[in-house]
Amino acid sequence: MVAVTLIALLVLAVVLKQALHPLTGVLSSVQDGVSAFQEEDFSLTIHKNGYSEIDKIAHLYNQMAGILRSERMNIFQRELLLDSVIQSTPVAMLLADNRQRVVYSNLAAKQLLQMQKSLEGFAISELLAQLPEALQQAVQREQDGLVTYMVDDQTLVFNVNFQRFMLNGQNHTLYLFKNLSQEMGRKEIELWKTVIRMISHELNNSLAPISSLTRSARRIVAEPEHLHLLNDVLETIDRRSQHLSGFIKQYAEFAKMPPPQLQSVELLSFFEQLKTLLAVNCHLDVLNTHGYFDPAQIEQVLINLVKNARESGSPESDIGFNLSQQANRLVFLVFDRGTGLSPEQLQQALLPFYTTKEHGSGIGLALCNEIVAAHGGKLRLYNRDHGGLCVSFEFSLAH
């Protein structure tokens, strides 16, 4: 009896094994396929074996593998297109991982560093040490913006930019260097032409009436009965001369802007002085007690910005100034509810001699930006929601 039972169980086991063989085969294939997915291999397919339920599993797996193959091909093609664009761009690009080693670069970076071999794997510090000193200093200070230096009596201008972001769960740093020398050369010529036109226009506006008034003065001297008119003529000549002198002085100040005299500044005291000087709504929100900057120059910047806000058509009550702290940076903000600026005006507002005012010289904002840049910052202008303009700048609290 026991022998019969054992034989029956053995036969049952063989039957079950034969019956489950198609299912175990499919499950084994699915397991192999999923393991291949982990290796980004989506080529494995499962053949049908005639069992409807098992064929459904095979069909779903094959369908998923086909979708992943298609998506991988699309991603590969997009990456290939993106790489082609990046390699052909004139902006030198270096991408460093959290160990500060280069994981990606382009042709412009090789040209900038004058290297023929691949840059991947190099320490970023080793590569950047081969750059001109001016660019090295900009990298060390992480100073975004324009960097100018001389090579063989030729002025070179680069725009330097740094960006940090997470990639595959790790911190990465992107270094960008754009050569603007040719573009800046063309801009410089256009700028000189603009300066010459403006100075010529202003000189003619002042010298023409002065010349006319001088002839009138001669006639008055020749006719003593009209001597009482001579004083008015001379006063008018004096006013035009003073206007012309002030105009030339503004240009001279822009050309001879002295470097900032950096010093430790007690922020609360500086803010209280600004409140009295600016006479607008002021707000202070800082944690540090001291900053490091040239108080006289920054004061002049804020005076100019508030003056512009008052000339924008804004109600006086809507003009304000905020001094705040973000991490280790000091942030200055002047705002109004005036007419704001058009997109074209926003792009050109910081260019020297560009003005939207009928009698403006176009020096004020350019001079402010020059001062802020000397402190390691940059003037930023943007329109406010519901009308008005904000002008802000920031720089490090410490030396």
Describe this structure in words.
With 399 residues, this protein is an alpha+beta fold. The chain folds into 4 domains: 2-85; 90-179, Beta-Lactamase, CATH 3.30.450; 185-255, Helix Hairpins; 263-396, Histidine kinase-like ATPase, C-terminal domain (Heat Shock Protein 90, 2-Layer Sandwich), CATH 3.30.565. Helix content is 52%, strand content 20%. It is built from 11 helices and 12 strands. The strands form 3 sheets. The protein has a 5-stranded antiparallel beta sheet, with helices on both faces. A hairpin with a 2-residue loop joins β4 and β5. α1 (2-38) packs parallel to α2, α6 (181-222) packs antiparallel against α7 and α8 (267-278) packs parallel to α9. It is elongated and about 150 Å long.
Short description:
Helix content is 52%, strand content 20%. It contains eleven helices and twelve strands. The chain has helices at 2-38, 52-88, 107-113, 124-128, 133-141, 181-222, 230-255, 267-278, 295-310, 343-348, 364-374, and strands spanning 92-96, 102-105, 145-151, 154-167, 170-179, 263-266, 281-285, 290-293, 320-326, 329-335, 380-383, 389-396.
Question: Total number of helical segments?
Answer: 11
CATH fold topology of the largest domain: Heat Shock Protein 90
- What's the oligomerization state? single chain
Level of helix content? 40-55%
CATH architecture of the largest domain: 2-Layer Sandwich
- End-to-end separation in angstroms reads 98 Å
Query: How is the biggest beta sheet arranged?
Result: 5 strands, antiparallel
Mean pLDDT: 77
Q: What's the shape?
A: elongated
The count of strands amounts to: 12
Rg from C-alpha positions? 36 Å
Q: Which class do the helix and strand fractions yield?
A: alpha+beta
Biggest sheet, strands in spatial order?
Answer: 2-1-5-4-3
Low-confidence stretches: none
Question: What's the CATH class of the largest domain, please?
Answer: Alpha Beta
